[in-house]
Design goal:
- It contains 14 helices and 14 strands.
- The protein has 446 residues and is α+β, with helices and mostly antiparallel strands.
- It folds into two domains: 190 residues, no CATH class; 184 residues, no CATH class.
- Strands 1, 2, 3, 4, 5, 6, 7, 8, 9, 12, 13 and 14 form a twelve-stranded mixed sheet that branches. The protein has a two-stranded antiparallel ribbon with strand order 10-11.
- A hairpin with a 2-residue loop joins β3 and β4.
- The longest helix is centred in the N-terminal third of the chain and has 44 residues.
- 35% of the residues are buried.
């Protein structure tokens, strides 16, 4: 046809000349894609031949990733819960107490705090007077240390170990509570030490399942109190029921149970965040005056706020995270060595296969890519399993402690990147060794 039609032959020849570079490029791209798909299929197929060996190898990666992801998932879940649970002080609040928030550290430090003078009601009241005009909210509170308080009414009993104590009319603001039914304490209730009480929802459900509790007289630690109000439900925070609470006027509490070995906590609210630091400075001065400290004396009381409470937990969480990183690093290093060892064994076992592939046209980069894919696949599979197990166990801990469930996307992504790096780092030498084999020598291998 072309011989009989030179014009058409010339036209097709010119067209082919212009099309040849593009056509060649397309053919090469398609060939490259086919080669990569074939290499990927062969790499994954090789892993499937020795399933048990591949599973045991990636188990090391799973354990390493699980240790850090599990811890960080639990810590992330608890952090949000604790930031809410520890934020028991209201907005712009700070508190004075005899003991620090962490309990005092080692035995020697705790003993030093125990030997401090208790903060008495007289000192707290004097501090309150000194802060008039500086802070509108000064909450005085004291809690039962025995941990055996139980409310009783008409033969019914509440859960033992109630949060029971005395306070003043500012307890609601200082501790983020509200009265759902009834009324709050008044200044007269505090001044006259009236035997009245505010109770939480858990106590209401146990003692008054079918009647109105307002006006009823209940007994706690052999003392009787008239119910004047019900706290609104708060639920559980950090594994502790916030509705197992009963509070009486602080003066009544001290009258009933004595002031010996009782220390008052003082919560103060600054008028705004802008004068928060200024209010703290004035409050420290007022507290030193109330405690009758001399200028050269050190403070014999502790100051803390929501930020300090959260910071204290963050320090503990950082120590736990650092420990998990060390354990995870050791496990991942051992797992990486295991991957290198297994890949070297695989290269030795498949020497003849590599020789055959090279003899029929496989390039050095094809062999290198195949063995790298195998190493990375093992590492990533172990990483995915570790992430799933870690998230599952971490959230299980969160559920047990009544915290919100989380999925740490950032740590999961970091885990996958680290696993990929381990696969490439520890798999490169075996892959390079396989790619560098002489095809003739490889074919002779028995």
């Amino acid at each position: 046809m072309f011989i009989g039609d030179p014009t058409q032959a010339s036209r097709l020849a010119v067209q082919a000349q212009y099309d040849k570079p593009g056509l060649y490029s397309k053919i090469e791209n398609r060939k490259s894609k086919m080669n990569f798909r074939e290499i990927l299929r062969m790499a994954l197929g090789s892993l499937g031949v020795n399933k048990l060996r591949s599973f045991l190898t990636m188990s090391g990666i799973t354990i390493g990733v699980f240790s850090v992801i599990g811890v960080m998932t639990a810590v992330s879940a608890l952090r949000g819960s604790i930031e809410t649970g520890l934020s028991f002080l209201g907005s712009n609040m700070f508190q004075f107490a005899k003991f620090p928030v962490n309990g005092g550290g080692d035995e020697g430090q705790r003993r030093r705090y125990v030997l401090r003078r208790d903060i008495t009601l007289a000192q707290a009241t004097r501090y309150q007077r000194l802060m008039e005009g500086v802070a509108d909210v000064v909450c005085l509170k004291i809690f039962d240390r025995n941990g055996i308080a139980q409310a009783v009414y008409g033969g019914r009993k509440s859960t033992p170990g109630l949060t029971f104590g005395g306070t003043n009319e500012h307890f609601l603001t200082a501790n983020q509570f509200t009265v759902d039914v009834g009324r709050n304490f008044t200044a007269e209730d505090i001044e006259l030490a009236r035997p009245v009480i505010l109770i939480g929802r858990s106590i209401v459900e146990k003692l008054f399942p079918a009647e109105n509790p307002l006006g009823k007289v209940i007994k706690i630690r052999e003392r009787t109190y008239t119910v004047i109000g019900l706290f609104a439900e708060k639920g559980t925070q950090f594994g502790q029921n916030q509705d197992d609470i009963a509070m009486v006027p602080i003066t009544r509490f001290l009258n009933d149970f004595g002031s010996e070995r009782q220390t008052v906590n003082i919560a103060t609210q600054a008028a705004s965040q802008m004068i928060y630091n200024e209010t703290i400075e004035k409050a420290i001065t007022a507290m030193r005056i109330a405690r009758e400290l001399k200028p050269e004396d050190e403070n014999d009381f502790e100051l803390y706020s929501n930020d300090s409470l959260i910071s204290a937990f963050a320090q503990v969480a950082d120590v736990i995270a650092a420990g998990s990183f060390v354990i995870s690093g050791i496990a991942l290093l051992a797992a990486g060595v295991g991957i290198m060892n297994i890949m070297l064994v695989s290269v030795t076992e498949r020497t003849k296969e590599i020789g055959i592939r090279k003899s029929i046209g496989a390039r050095k980069k094809n062999i290198l890519t195949q063995f790298l894919i195998e190493a990375v696949a093992i590492s990533l599979a172990g990483g995915v399993m570790g992430i799933l197990f870690g998230i599952g166990v971490g959230n299980l801990v969160a559920v047990m402690l009544k915290a919100a469930l989380v999925f740490p996307w950032d740590w999961a992504a970091i885990g996958l990147l680290v696993c990929s790096g381990i696969g490439v780092g520890f798999g490169f030498y075996p892959a390079w060794k396989a790619a560098s084999l002489d095809p003739i020598e490889a074919l002779r291998y028995e």
